[in-house]
Design brief:
With 311 residues, this protein is mainly β. The chain is 1% helix and 54% strand.
Length: 311
């Protein structure tokens, strides 16, 4: 039997992200903290902007983009823990993102006012903007395709319409870089969409949604939007980051109420579940059983041998 290391407590953590090379773990809470994964040591801690709510490593892992609940964005040197640029955009409002372009020169983010923006990552200058009236841009994900390409998936929430009008469905759009006006294509339209996550190879889209008072976890083919599987699930924790794939695409993690649930793919059968107080974020280290779990109370870095637990 292989000995497992004791879980590392991360403290209050709204977001967790491993660096592209897996050497570092960024933890977003009241401050932004960078950990050395192998040594389990803090490298630096900083509070670069107020009310941080989102973050993303650049493709080379050298920078961290952060976003606040007011929409303000900044870029931090991931090695030195020093602020590189503050975009000074406090009035843009809350939203989703950030997400990096494949070249690392640009940053995309979305607003709850329906605006999709692309900025210069060095200056913060807005280079592209497309408005989506009557919509909220709830989430964005980077899609790493089998052919090596990288695209951007945006989750759109359609705001409620007046009584007597037909409620349009929520939907996901997929964008090629560089983003261009009218360039997004609708990959999936679905009423009551709560959360989504593209698979690591860009072939599937897992979606948590509700209809008729019940919640479902469904799997769709990104190429044509066809539904491949659907299972009813119990009500979850309500976080906007509720789904996260294992790096090999063999299972899907979901944040529930006081627990993490793992579903196998193909099939969407429940593999296992772990009790945890107030979970809110999840990330996995490729090629390793290590998982970073964010929690409003106290997150952890721990080993999760998901498939071994069901053997």
């Amino acid at each position: 039997m292989t000995a497992t290391r004791k879980p590392l407590k991360l403290g209050c953590s709204y977001g967790v992200r491993f660096s592209p090379d897996g050497a570092h773990l960024a933890v977003l809470g009241r401050d932004l903290v960078l950990w050395d994964v192998a040594a389990r040591q803090k490298l630096w801690r900083g509070k670069f902007i107020a009310h941080m709510s989102g973050m993303a490593f650049s493709p080379d892992g050298g920078r961290l983009a952060i976003k606040s609940t007011t929409g303000q964005m900044a870029v931090v040197d991931a090695e030195a823990g020093q602020l590189l640029v503050n975009f000074q955009n406090k009035k843009d409002g809350e939203g989703c993102g950030p997400a990096w372009s494949p070249c690392g020169r640009y940053l995309a983010d979305g607003g709850w006012d329906g605006r999709l923006r692309v900025r210069d990552a060095q200056t913060g200058e807005v280079l592209f903007m497309q408005e989506h009236p009557g919509q909220m841009l709830r989430a964005m994900h980077t899609i790493d395709a089998i052919d090596g390409g990288r695209r951007l998936l945006v989750q759109h929430g359609v705001k409620s319409v007046d009584e007597g009008q037909v409620q349009p469905p929520d939907y996901c759009s997929v964008w090629d870089w560089p983003l261009q006006a009218g360039g997004g294509t609708v990959a999936l339209s679905l009423p009551g969409m709560m959360s989504c996550a593209p698979s690591p190879d860009g072939e599937f889209l897992a979606v948590l949604h509700h209809t008729g008072g019940a919640q479902y976890l469904s799997m769709y083919a990104l190429a044509d939007g066809s539904c491949l599987a659907r299972v009813p699930v119990e009500a979850g924790g309500g976080t906007g980051d509720a789904l996260h794939w294992l790096p090999d695409g063999s299972a899907l993690g979901r944040i529930g109420k006081g627990k993490l649930l793992f579903y196998c793919w193909p099939g969407l059968d429940v593999l296992t579940q772990h009790a945890l107080m107030y979970p809110c974020a999840l990330d996995f280290l490729p090629g390793s059983p290590l998982a970073a779990i964010g929690s409003w109370e106290s997150g952890m870095l721990m080993e999760l041998n998901i498939h071994e637990e069901t053997a």
